[in-house]
Design a protein that fits this description.
This protein is α+β, with helices and mostly antiparallel strands and 233 residues long. The chain is built from 6 helices and 11 strands. The chain has 3 domains: 38 residues, no CATH class; 54 residues, Ribosomal Protein L9, domain 1 (3-Layer(aba) Sandwich); 90 residues, Ribosomal protein L9, C-terminal domain (Ribosomal Protein L9, domain 2), CATH 3.10.430.100. The chain has a 4-stranded mixed beta sheet with strand order 8-11-10-9. It has a 3-stranded antiparallel beta sheet with strand order 6-5-7.
Length: 233
């Protein structure tokens, strides 16, 4: 049995992936008993109720779970060449195995990457979640609220840390690096974008686009006091 997979970015390319599907059924009604001399393959002898079944188990709709594979190349966010990783079966069957980016970890395949596996001991490991966090921050425009009505103001790491916390990213001030130097009332024009560097860990950092959003602290305080006076519904 084959399942046809059409990639969204490659409409002209059709990939057929063999799959194994098992469906377990049971009869809804007892089978009609035929006489000994009647042909059991003569379907006209049966009733329509003899062909009604109830599905007990369909392996195609069950959760696939995970599977171990050995990578033949470096796959970003997954692992290095020769590394045995545990990934969802759907990713393995639809992405890595058809593209020959991974193989089943048989003794023969493991022996093919013996040299690469020796190098994995000294190679730093990067979690897939770190790469996902990096990609998320790379595509984010960070809005940093600052009271621009002050005569003198300057962007601090604490302002950036608070802005990151507003998008559910927690970090220390030591992990923040101002890429464009000092930003204050003299060097910044409203609406300009600038970049900062955030060290996710000692091995991975990301450049984040930022923009300063003017905020009136007095107005925010009045709104806060007003919200406390409103009756709770």
């Amino acid at each position: 049995m084959f399942r046809t997979l059409i990639r969204p970015l490659q409409s002209a390319r059709i990939i057929q992936i063999p799959i194994r599907t098992t469906v377990i059924v049971e009869r809804v009604h007892p089978l009609t008993k035929l006489r000994p001399w009647e042909n059991i393959y003569d379907y006209s002898k049966y009733k329509y109720t003899d062909f009604q079944y109830r599905i007990i188990r369909d392996t195609d709709t069950e959760k696939w779970g995970n599977i171990d594979v050995i990578l033949t190349e470096y796959v970003e966010g997954v692992g290095y060449k020769g590394e045995i990783v545990n990934i969802p079966r759907e990713i393995a069957y639809r992405e890595l195995l058809p593209a020959q980016l991974a193989l089943y970890p048989t003794p023969e395949n493991i022996a093919l990457f013996e040299e690469e596996r020796k190098l994995l001991v000294d190679r730093p490991q990067i979690s897939p979640f770190v790469m996902k966090c990096r990609d998320y921050l790379k595509s984010t425009l960070l809005q940093i609220p600052i009271n621009l009505k002050l005569k003198e103001w300057s962007l601090t790491k604490d302002n950036i840390r608070v802005a990151l916390r507003r998008i559910n990213v927690m970090c220390d001030e030591d992990a923040i690096i101002l890429e464009d130097g000092s930003i204050n009332q003299d060097t910044y024009k409203l609406g300009e974008e600038f970049n900062i560097i955030l060290n996710i860990n000692p091995l991975v950092d990301v450049s984040i686009k930022c923009i300063i959003v003017p905020v009136d602290k007095a107005k925010l305080w009045d709104e806060y006091q007003l919200s406390k006076r409103r009756p709770k519904t």
